[in-house]
Amino acid sequence: MSLPILQSGRIILRRSLDTILFLVDILAMKFLRKRNSNAHSHLLSTFYLFGGFVPLVASKWLGSPKIDFSEEGILSKFSEKDLKFASKHLKDEGFIVLQNVLSAELCSRILKESEIIPGKTRIMDGGKRVDEQIYFNREAPAGIRFDYESSDLISSPVLQQLIFDESILRFAQNYLGSAPILDLVAMWWHTTFSTVPDKEAAQWFHFDMDRLKWIKFFFYITDVDTNTGPHTFIARSHRKLGIPFSLRKKGYVRLTDQEVASSFLPNQYKEFTGKGGTLIVEDTRGLHKGKHCVSGDRLLFQLEFTASDFGIPLPEFVLTPPVDRNSIAAEKIGKYQHVYQAIRFEGTDYPPKDGEATP
Q1: CB atoms within 10 A of CB 103
Q2: pTM for this one?
Q3: 3-class DSSP assignment, residue 215
Q4: Is the same domain home to 9 and 116?
Q5: What is the per-residue pLDDT across 24-72, written as a single tens digit (0 to 9) for each?
Q6: Strand partners, 280
């Protein structure tokens, strides 16, 4: 028997054992609220072998009861019929694009926030890590991608309008099938610093698999055309077996355009262009990437909600002082502690970790 066949057999055996351990992890989480430090690794192995079948069933089991959110917010401009169509398209295709969700005035205010909030230039392929916090220089960027700290974004009153928007929570909950938990807040620039796509900047195709089930909201803050780094998605690749085993078996890696092209039809490639204020809602279990910038640049704000905290540990977001206890942040965190359980006020124990609000 050849060495490659033996190695392949060992990998399949190990991942099969991990799948059994994954089921044990789910039971421990459900009944004991205990988190295995290797649970995420077991989740990945299960996905490599069986696609999305097992994680999606587990998500239904671990999810919390739905919350009665208000319809008020940025999505209230759409009719109930429009939102039902959007939810169905998201379920069937893995994405939905909504135009003019944010006003030009709000995009302008967020753009100004990007100038006064410090961030970091992300490490590039073959580069060295840069930990120094700096302010983004749009005229002379220091790297291909510039990221902002989540806690700084959550502390911004401008961005809080989106983070605590109940119409977003309502839409996320409808897709997840259970009460959502905020587990990611991000904003970043893509620039023309490099002439080739960069893996570390997420400009190669990849899938996400940190949780059992989640949904992401991508807001274009600047205008995006085919040359300024449009987000790209493979339609229907989010389905249970949407990514073929030939790609899943490679593991949690970035994939070249050539590797992806061999498994999908040309009409499945969706390149999202749009004015600032465009919203892309996406199940990033499907293959996606940010196309590299040929000209100009792109600023994008992102929220992610998960159906449960199984997987990698929830991050801790810290609201920095001064914190107005009468602010929208304090109100929503107090009202929806399940949703915003990852957020804490700096220097305090508020909100309390026990005694969650409904669900």
Answers
A1: 12
A2: 0.94
A3: strand
A4: no
A5: 999 999 999 999 999 999 999 999 999 999 999 999 999 999 999 999 9
A6: 97, 218
